[in-house]
Amino acid sequence: MSSAAISSRVLAGFGLRRALVRHRGALIAAIVLAILLFIVDWISAGPLTYFDVSFLSSGGATSALAAVGQTIVILSGGFDLSAGAVISLVNVVLASSMDPMAPGASILLWTVVGIGVGMAVGAFNGFFIAVLRMQPIVVTLSTMFILQGVTLLVMDKPGGFVSPDLGSFYLGDAITGWLPMPLVVIGLVLLAWFWLKGTRFGTALYAVGSDPDSAAAVGINVVLVRFAVYVIAGGCYGLAGVFISAQTGSADPLVGNPLLLSMFAAVVVGGTRLGGGQGGPVGTVFGAYILMMVVNILLVLNVSAYYSTIAEGTILVLAALAGSLSHTSVLAVQLRAARARLAAWRAGILPSQLEPIDRRLKIAGPTQNQRGPASPRPAFRLRNAEMLRYALPAYACLLIIVIVTQVWLGRAILNPGYWNSLLVLSSFLAVLALGQGTVILTGGLDLSVPWTIGISGIILAGMVNGSDTALLYALPVVLLMACAIGFANGFGIAYLGISPIVMTLATNGILQGFALVYSQGTPAGFSSPMLRWFMTARLGFVTPVVLLMVVFVAGAVLLLGRTPFGRRVYGIGNGLRAARLSGIGVERTLILVYMLSAVCAAVVGIMLTGFSGQASLGMGDDYLLPSIAVVVVGGALITGGRGHYLGMLGGVLLLTALQMLLAGTTLPYATRAILYGLVVLGAVMALRERRLQ
């Protein structure tokens, strides 16, 4: 054989090996999907038929289409938390606008309408993220709440009607008895992706996701690429909304909310790297069907559907961990460091094992007679200039809101009842602001707040069940559970290297499943009289919880501003590497930070149970965006390192006063959700760093 032939075979083998490594995630997902299909065939009553394949293909299509859009966003280095809300909006738009007597030709029209709605939302996100260079997490979270409000304005409860022609088309057969239409739709989307990937835009997309600064240096228009990414992703969400409308035949304004967890899980299971630059939609489609198959296997085994979110959250964590394993991963680094510490301990050379010797350099200072007069201490305004700069706008806006309330509704400024109500309603967010604010100061975000609140209230109410005596042991149990939740979040982030967004989102889904399993879908029990008195009684003009809040605020200010823990939090937020070089125990501090956040969320769950008299499923859902909004409105930097609890408290009072004003005007929840989202966007836009502009 000639040397040229040998060289060509070697190069071909090398190219094949490189391709296998590059597409490893998608190949593994395909193998896992094949194994799950075999398991389903094995545990089913009979062999899989074409009907079974068609049913399974339609069952995972919505999640697969939406996850393709999420994959494209993640490939560019972003995140999109508004995807589920886009699906819900498209669903209600179609169900409230379609003519049931329209001919089948309207299928194309309404498909275009659904995709167009999604692309319009994507353009909204892209403008703030790409053009104004705002954080994707905050922008898309705000958009999620805005869209939820718009969706409820269009249709505030399940109903409406989707033409049966839409269902017949998308759920039928492309080739009767041989090829289901859902697979054709997904195939066309993937073909469009392969075409897009081969263009200059596709190359630019991966370059921006890998290193946006390097991409900009070689002439790539990073702003245009990021804007287009969110528009394309919005179109995928819109198509998923059309598909789910065809499946349900009607509308539900909350239909897209459960898809967010499975969407991220499908992306990670499919081998796409969080942070961008590696992966693709093909693996994501396999990942979406893997999750669907897991849920179906649980149902075949007569396992309650309540376990589905537990399974999805667990799969998301395991997939994120498996996808990040490498020689340079956080887990690998931690294992090497642990091995080195163990070797040092055996050798007796750990710093704690050595004799303490002052090794500092002796520098001769001036004698008492040589010292000049002591410098005067700077004024309070100068010492706290930065805090005042970012915190005072919240209090100025609070004053404006109170004046408007007085003029519009009356009985505000001089009414003790108004101020007591303001402080009582602010107490929930004031507690959450400490936990979420501390997480944000480190550069993270805690998305497990809603169901930490929910499961804490549900477990407390179930254990107490109206007994003051039971409260004595129920409170410690709930708080210890919260510490365990926070420890799991912090450990996964600090030691396993899982992204805070992914880790806390997965934890939120797992907690939701546990809450459903514990309560069997109907929470039992109610608050004890003592807890109810604490949250609703009056001592003169003041509710008892207000007195506790005064102590809590003082403790929060001291914790973040006057303790070593607070200094470590700010140090981590200003730079992880610099914090390590400064001797800060980053891992231990992060675990404590997430434990603090979980404990604060649990306290809010306890307070809400006492305030309403009982617990309910989803009782924490309304507190995710506000817990972030008050921190941002109070002047904290969403990327960490800047903020003060007094500023966060100003944000709490401002948004609560705004909520009370809106409640006095009988505006619906939908309008409040829209305003919350707009307030957060406006605050982030006004307070973002100059270097981000």
| Main sheet: strands, sense, barrel | 2 strands, antiparallel
Mean pLDDT equals 82
Walk across the major sheet and give the strand order. 1-2
User: Helical proportion?
Assistant: over 70%
| Strand-residue proportion | under 5%
Q: What is the general shape? A: globular
Cα radius of gyration in angstroms:
28 Å
Total DSSP E strands: 2
Pick out the low-confidence regions: none
Q: What is the SS-derived class?
A: mainly alpha
The total count of helices amounts to: 30
The end-to-end span amounts to 62 Å
Describe the structure in your own words.
- This protein has 693 residues and is an all-alpha fold.
- The chain is 72% helix and 1% strand.
- The chain has 30 helices and two strands.
- It has helices spanning 3-22, 24-43, 50-59, 61-75, 83-97, 106-131, 136-154, 164-171, 181-197, 200-210, 212-217, 222-248, 259-269, 281-300, 308-323, 330-347, 380-383, 385-408, 416-441, 449-464, 468-494, 500-519, 529-536, 544-562, 564-574, 576-581, 586-612, 624-633, 645-664, 669-687, and strands at 173-175, 179-180.
- Strands 1-2 form a two-stranded antiparallel sheet.
- Helix 4 (61-75) crosses helix 13, helix 6 runs antiparallel to helix 7 (136-154) and helix 20 runs antiparallel to helix 21 (468-494).
What are the salient characteristics of this protein?
693 residues, mainly alpha, two-stranded antiparallel sheet, 30 helices, 1% strand, membrane, cell membrane, transmembrane helix, ABC transporter permease, transmembrane
